[in-house]
Amino acid sequence: MKSQVFIEKVLLTEQKRSKCDEKIAWKPWVLGALTLFIFASLSLYWLNEEALSRDSYWQSQQALFIWFNQLLQTILPASLWANLTKAGDALVLLPLLAFISIRQRKVWLSLMATVPFAGLTSVILKKLASIPRPGGVLEPEGWTIIGSMITGPSSFPSGHSLCAFAAFSAFLIAQHPKGKWLPFTLGLTIALLIALSRVAVGAHWPLDIIFGSALGCLAGLCGALLAQNCAWSSSASTKGRIISLSVLAMFAFSLGKEISSASSTEWVTWLAFFASLWCFIHLLFEDLFSIKITVLRHHRL
Fold this sequence. Notes:
- There is one protein chain.
- This protein has helices spanning 2-18, 27-47, 54-59, 62-73, 78-87, 90-101, 105-129, 134-137, 159-175, 181-200, 206-228, 238-260, 267-284, 286-300.
- The protein is built from 14 helices and no strands.
- Helix content is 74%, strand content 0%.
- The radius of gyration is 22 Å and the shape is globular.
- It is mainly alpha-helical.
- The protein has a domain at 25-231: Vanadium-containing Chloroperoxidase, domain 1.
């Protein structure tokens, strides 16, 4: 009887801790996104005053793209750029982040909530802009292509950059790491490397990744705000758990299918696959494990 009362008290305490009363500091993220927008717009104007047309947009960046693409090859090996660009895929990035945030339900659900904002923004703007990829307009000589060449008219904005910065901003906003520079610096470095990888592999123009990063900051803010104001973001919410389990199961199935078909050889895909499986099992048996551990500790005392 005493054990049951003790367990109920522990569970009630965990539910209270899950309620986040801190307000989201949205101003720095909006300011950061606006700064990137202004910088990209000024760069666009400096490259070519008529760069608002589709052809002028990519033509004005040809020399910069080739120089930057070649420069990045001297910084990191091709295999690492390939893994970094793969990590910018939401199917890979979210399971990796789930591995370190699944116990912080509001952080994990904030990451999931950014997906519709980031996805819709990327798809709509790609359709409207219809900017050709470097591989679709440049000769293959003089610059480096890592992986398969992408030639479709879907260059602007960079979806991988958008996804990386959306996850980065949502994670930090929900985490509230006030006064802690290490999480911010580490997250920014990884997001920046993922964005740069899109030029390194020859998939995007430089301004694509700048605009994509700015839009990602805004998408991450929207996702964090949505999770902050939804009841299902609580660790005690059954709906939130069902959504999380469904998403993790989808990730594990899709990544497993991709690995089995040998369509992806990057090791980061394997990491994401095992991370999604671990998170699914952990979430499925979370209550059972926590109650057993609590009972054992109580008996020892």
